[in-house]
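Practice problem: predict the structure.
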Amino acid sequence: MALVKASTRDSTITPHRDQTVLAPNDNCSNSANAFAIASTATAVGAFLLFTGSKDTAVLTPGSYTAVVSGVSVRTDTALVEF
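Answer:
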């Protein structure tokens, strides 16, 4: 399973496979699979996810394109780890 994380001031991440949206995420510490995301991040040596953070992450198997978008009108730089 791949872990894709984006860290900006506040972002969403949306994985796509062809025209299909797989599992979008915003504020992963509040998501239904937050524990699995945090455990996987620790296991692969990715940066830590803190409760209440604005970080986004998805655990999606297979090949796909991950689109990272800012929640606010600001622009920022995204760090995406595969």
